[in-house]
Amino acid sequence: MDARKVETGSVTDTTDREIITTRIINAPRELVWNAFTDPDALAQWWGPNGFTLTTKVFEFKAGGDWIFVMHGPDGRDYANLVHFTEIVRPLRMLHDHGGDDGKVMFKASITLDEIDGGTRVTMRSVFNSKEVRDFVTKEYGAVEGGKQTLARLDTYVTENRTNG
Fold it and tell me: pLDDT tens digits, residue range 120-129?
């Protein structure tokens, strides 16, 4: 997905309200894809360092939902609702991401690109406004959290590849 989108004939630049996190993982794309499609696997790596995950619903298909709670190391629980809007195996998944109040906080894409030596994973989140993006960056450490999440994915896939 490009950093711009076409809306009613005009091009809207979203760079001031997005967060993009990328990591190269030394593993085949199919193995990385599988880590995203299995709720048991997601429970092993999704979220920043110190977080755990409880999945309540997992319907990995366009139109399906992933309802989960992230349990922070500080004891707080963070309810999440992901509504999948497009899934193209093993290339990309698009979703709306919100909280338990049903409000969409951001639109997200996760893309997996085959490269020499592995897979480039790109997570892109586009918020409704720059202010919302700035808030989640400051209050929730979203940029660092995204980096930690992909580092945990890398560790999970590497261990799964060598031990699985």
Answer: 999 999 999 9
